[in-house]
Amino acid sequence: MRFLLQRAGLLVAFALFASASLVAQYSLSGTVTDATSEPLIGVSILAAGTSSGTVTDIDGRFTLTVPANAEQLILSYTGFATQRVKVNSTMSTVNIVLEEDVTNLNEVVVTGLASSIKRSNLANAVSTVSGEELTGATSQQTVDGALYGKMTGVNITQTSGAPGGGYAIRLRGVSSLSGNNQPLIIVDGVYISNVEISNGSGNASGANDPTEEGASNRLADINPDDIATMEVLKGASAAAIYGTRANAGVIIITTKQGKGGKTEISFNQDIGFNTIIRKVGRRSFTSQQVFEEFTTNFGDAESPPTAAQIAAGRAEQARFDAATARGEIFDYEDEIYGEQGLISDSRLRISGGSDKTRFLLSGSYRDEDGIIKGTGYERFTTRLNVTHQLSDKIKIQSNTNYINSSASRGFSGNENEGGLSYGYTLAFTRDWYNLFPDEDGVYPDNPTFSGNPIQTRDETRNIENIDRVLQGVNLTYSAFTKNNQSLRFVLNGGLDFLYNETEVYVPETFQSQRGVQNGFLGIGKNNVFNYNYSAIGVYDYYTDSGINFTTQGGVTYLKFDNDFVYNQTTQLIPLQQNLTQGGAQEINQVLNLVEEFGFVVQEEVNINDRFIATVGVRFDKSSLNGDPNKFFAFPRASMALNLTEFDFWNTDFITQFKPRIAYGQTGSSAQYGRLFTSLSPVNIGGQSGFTVNGSQGKPDLEPETSSELEFGIDIGLLENKVNLVASYYIRDVNDLLYDRSLPTSSGFGNEIRNDLDLRNQGLEIQLGLNPIRTSNVDYRTTLNFWYNDSEITRLGIEGGNGEGDGDIPSFVPPATAFGLGLGTFYIDEGSPITGLWLNVDGIPTQVGDTEPDFQFGWGNNLTVGNFSASALFHWREGSDILNLTRYLTDIGIQTPRADDNIVGLIEDGSYFRLREASIYYNIPLESRFIEGLKVGISGRNIFTLTDYSSYDPETSAKGGGGLSTNVEVTPFPSSRQFYFHVGANF
Q1: Helices and strands, counts by H and E, the chain
Q2: What region holds the TonB-dependent receptor plug domain (predicted)?
Q3: Which residues constitute the domain of residue 69?
């Protein structure tokens, strides 16, 4: 009987508990819209303090079972501020309007290969640029060129001013000496190639190295207007999840996607023009100065000129006087660089869809003429992004991009008497020589140099054509979703196929060709075929106390397959432009194949948005390493503390206060072919054979690695009208791979080593202000400040400038500049890796540093009613430049500042530049056909304040790799651009 009473009591208690449970929750429905009453799809809604949540549908509606003890709903949505709404059991419906997230604290940032996190919870310094920030002010030629001054920790150098771009990006300093210093770039999950492809023009011009040919990097293929967001993982603590490829940082690009609902159409047209930023100028001569300069030039400065020299000076003086009388004193700098190139950029976008399928179709055509006649760039792109919900559990997304572009880049940069480089030629050309063709179309020879710049402009070719396909596919399978846990699998695949054709043609009549090559034709046909895939599982678990665990793990695979073919013909039959119509033919093919495999595990813990921690590790193996089956580990860990989320925080003045710390490691393998000593084919007397290449391979190479420790703090004040993000980092790059010369007795020219260590450390501060925020007026300003310092901490097994057994003496790295006689980089323990060195009294001496003392970007955006205006200023302080353009023009007696007594070839490259500025007006319309019309004007590189004496302090003669920045040799000058814009929405 007692037993039965106990069982009955338990049943009654259970029934009472069940009844209480039923009463202790209620159903709540509602809608979520923005300030314009537009429904918001996919808003995350969570009952505070519980694991009960949902998301809004295509109409912005939701239904949620709310526990009675939940007093608030927490709503999160990308682009909008996190919002808390009070609720209680007496409510059955609620309508909620989300406010725009002006501080980006609710912005979603990538933290893993298949997971993301709100910026307010982020423990790393990840810079994000929206599509509006990237292209909203003015038309952008390339994606990397659009980043100038817009984020901290990013140093951008223009490698060529030619249409079609050419830029080098450095994130938090130098990452490699001989390897890649450009970041890994991922577009919609596709690991894209950013290669610079040689066109062989150095074989005609005599340039020392293919990096001096002024090629563009292939990020130029991406249409900036297609981009929704760019996330820049600047250091190893954020980029470790990407492993071996992430030593120089990672840029993650997400393109725009369609939205469900009404089909929307937008068309934008930009019309503008290019002009040179500044000219160096040409020296003005009097008749007597011509005589004095040219007799002194050819004579002994300490002795009177000879009779023959005087006679030569008089002849030059007579030539000058006759040209003056005819009115034939030309400004050849203006003749070559004085064009106003027309720019047209047309863009069409169509987007829409249903609750199951969303699409975006875009097309763009950019046609840009250069500041040199005959140079230009055309790019046609089309994109189709489709997202389809196959079922409640499966979603698939496809991103397809096709690019066709062509560029005529002219001839600039370094050469050795090839007569092609405009700057080289201008340095030695007298403005009183008439170099224009006669009535028969015959160009005269240049009496003082090996080439006629007018003939180079009119009769030579340096062109490239690109066909490229980028395809990304993402499939998400939601295995299950319960009240407090979920499991999903993310499969991602990417393909990058690029076909590149280059052509360089110099006619046999060209001055430097006669009696030497007698005509030059070089054609390249190059294939890049890369693909990647990853399979990641993500498990989320929520406790009733508000703790969220996110566990992920999976595998990745990358394959890079390149086939570069170059054909060259000299001794051309007159008037022929065919590879078969020449007496000396040469063919060269470079094949390389790289495979990499890795797996990753990561755990994230979020305790009520108060404490956020992440630990993870990636294991990678690569065919570029000595042991292709050996896995290398790249760990990461981070912590952040949101003090304002704690109950004890009771001030409204400080709305965010988040200290954070992070650590991570990344790597970079050697370039293809460095594991072995290659053989070069030869044919002697009809017998084929091979000779040993000059570079000695090393079969036991391991990747260079970066280890970074980052400290930071994020502060928000006055409802986040003031935001401060500050980070200090220490990044050690160990076992750098580098080439070092060997004595000729070894049988090799150089060897690859990896016994060099480097430290980068720096400070990054971003201050965002939104002091005016009303319904009619909004003013926002962002101030970015950053610097980086480097030091070589180890050189050789024991280090120390050649002291001790096994140590490596200081040395000039190959292919970075032009030796200690003119100025170069120099690897010396205890010195910065970015230092410029010269021989001073026969002793290598550091005389400059290419690393800026600091950089400062100041962006401003003002909206008043239908008017909007913006301006971006960029200040770079310090950053010395090796100015060999001035050196050449000094030799040629053409420098207009010859009497300024600037000592040496090293100049200060500081500048202050108005990088971008714009004014737009939204025209109010009541048309049923046109929903919006916007007109405006804008400009890029509008003015520059600098003491630098040459064309532009942003320069690199050696392309985007290695230590190339801030070495100038007669570049293709940079341009300023002005635009008129009109855009319509339908």
Answers
A1: 11, 47
A2: 120-250
A3: 21-101
